[in-house]
Specification:
24% of the residues lie in helices and 34% in strands. The protein has five helices and twelve strands.
Amino acid sequence: MKKITLLFALCLSTFLSAQHYSGYEFVVVPEKFDFLSESNQYNLNELTKFLISKKEVTALFETEVKPIEYSMNECGVLRLNVTKEKSFLNTKLKITLRDCRGNIIAESTGSSREKEYRVAYNYALREAFDLLYLPPKEVTQKRLQTDAPQKDLDQPKDSSYLYAKKTGQGYKLYDSEENEKYTLFKTSKADQFIISNNLINGALYKAKNKDEWTLEYLKDEQVITETLKIAF
């Protein structure tokens, strides 16, 4: 079982390391997150600044002196926030990156079962950054110009399927009643995704049968495998 778990973790790591970013230049990080009582409590804001800078962007605190390149294109700057999500057993943190108009450009979630907040927040934040995919700027601009919520009211949908709607970082999966079920993050391969929701983080592979995909994730140190039918 340890070998299977290690193989799964290595596979997931390979997907993420293959992602490339060629978009926004600056990301602004707050000195304090709303779910904490002090600025940079548990060193979380400094850690956030450090981890986002590894995505090939220049990270700045809100009160930091900005370079001239920043002021020349303030709408090309992303603002990052970290929020604490409701979770019964885990400590769960969510990263959200927005542009100057408030549009969500990228988001991801990480979790930890550690009891101590200092450790749990650190682990959850690092996992969220591992799963964070920053799409190229030109891709997000095209998406924001064309994206609009659409519902196909004329054609009934098969309840056994999940239906994909494209986003800047991959897809959102909805059931036949338009309830959001999963978020898919693109990898370097068209038939492989990182998949997550409020309960799991895992990998999604194309199966042999048409429209069928294999979902794998860890639960209680065991690899769980499920089959999903997805209409793209």
